[in-house]
Amino acid sequence: MENRSTSPLKDTVVAQKDIIDIIRSFRKKPPARTDSVSKQFNFSLVPSAGYTLSTGFAADLSGNVVFYTDKNSTEKLSTAFSNVTYDQHKQFLFHTNTNIWSKNLNYNYIGDWRFLKYPESTFGLGSLTTEGETNLINYSYFRFYQTVLRKIYSSLYTGFGYNFDYHYHITQTGNADKTISDFKIYGLNSKSRSSGLTYNLLFDNRKNPVNPLNGVYANAIYRSNFQFLGSDSNWQSLTFDFRKYFKVGEKSNNILAFWMLDWLILNGHPPYLDLPSTGWDTNGNTGRGYPQGRFRGNGMLYLEGEYRFNITRNGLLGGVVFTNLESFSSYQDSKFQRILPGYGPGLRIKFNKHSNTNLCIDYGIGNSSQGFFVNLGEVF
Predict the structure, then answer these.
(1) What tens digit of pLDDT does each residue of 5-22 get?
(2) Which Gene3D superfamilies does the record cross-reference, listed alphabetically (predicted)?
């Protein structure tokens, strides 16, 4: 049976198609699909090879699972995402994100676990850095973030978490223009640790975070790092993440989406690699148009807007146009400097119609940089 408007993930009366349907159509007697809208778990797995601005040529394996914790639920979908990447810059990345809701939605469990072996070009601190300040830093990185939230009213949750960042085997080549690097001025070390507790306040009434059709997401995180927990120094930060989705038209899945992210160091002296930076948000999606780590500072202000629209009525193909603005503060006086724009178009290919998962291929254009950006699931 075709997937129609009876799906809690769809608001269209047109039969939906995805890549799996297209592949099955070439077989004379295709076997029945084992996934369905009523199935508790829906998996998407994408092996790929390609080129992006941040990785160069890369081999990648991405997968997600979208599910209801309660078989009879039609409320919030839980998600788990994993990614393994190796690229021409000899970067190795293993990354897992989880966002799991308990039965009756009383608790929300959020995880972010990573291991990276990561040569990365950095460019110093603030919004005024130049290509001449390119500084290749090589390091290994382990991250463990885990948060537990408890419902206090409707879609409002609060709770605590633990964040641990460990960078080690850190080396730098120095600035391309032979000037002293901001990394050395800030405090070059061969390893760094940040270990702290977080207090979280979350409002989330989206049903499907992989591809939201409406709703609001607002998350405030106060992080306090302590030496008695193993941190190199005591320092505090505040992150506020706000997203809003508007459906354009009653009979379409076209969406106007907005994203604001404020990431601020409140006090103390964090390790250089733990400072707010382009592309180092939870899902690594800020700053389409710029390579990861292009800008870094004591504070980051970010704003993005995106229009998502169908190209085919069956949902197989879609498109987006987006624009973003970001600004970073300098280390010396913590004042925000110039605004850095990014913009571009994107293609959406329906990978799994039951979880509404899209393969997202975007072309971002920034100041003096441009390139492809690829995601399994919407950017925000």
Answers:
(1) 434 444 445 688 888 788
(2) membrane protein fhac: a member of the omp85/tpsb transporter family (2.40.160.50)
Q: pTM of the prediction?
A: 0.88
Q: What are the backbone angles phi and psi of residue 104, rounded to the nearest 5°? A: 65, 5
Please give the structure tokens belonging to residue 360. 């997202």
Strand partners, 221: 200, 239
Q: Hey, which bits of the chain come out as E strands?
A: 41-52, 56-67, 78-87, 92-101, 107-122, 135-153, 156-175, 191-204, 215-225, 235-247, 255-267, 299-310, 317-328, 340-352, 357-366, 369-376
Low-confidence ranges of the chain (pLDDT < 50): 1-12, 37-38
pLDDT of residue 71: 67
Instruction: Give CA–CA dist 212/206, Å, rounded.
Output: 6
- Domain CATH code at residue 173: 2.40.160.50
| 4 within some domain | no
- What amino acid occupies position 81? F
Q: What pLDDT is stored for residue 155 in this prediction?
A: 93
Q: What are phi and psi of 102, to 5 degrees?
A: -80, 170
Q: Is residue 57 part of a domain?
A: yes
Number of separate domains in the chain = 1
Residue 238: inside a domain: yes
* 169 exposure class (CB count in 10 Å sphere: 0-12, 13-18, 19+): exposed
Among all chains, which residue has been given the structure tokens 């991405």? 62
316 and 349 Cβ atoms separated by less than 8 Å = yes
Domain hosting 113: range is 19-376
Reported as a single tens digit per residue, the pLDDT across 50-107 is 677 777 788 888 888 888 887 666 678 899 989 898 988 888 989 999 999 998 899 9
In a domain, 2, yes or no: no
3-class secondary structure, 315: coil
Q: What's the rounded Cα separation, in Å, for the pair 144 and 110?
A: 11
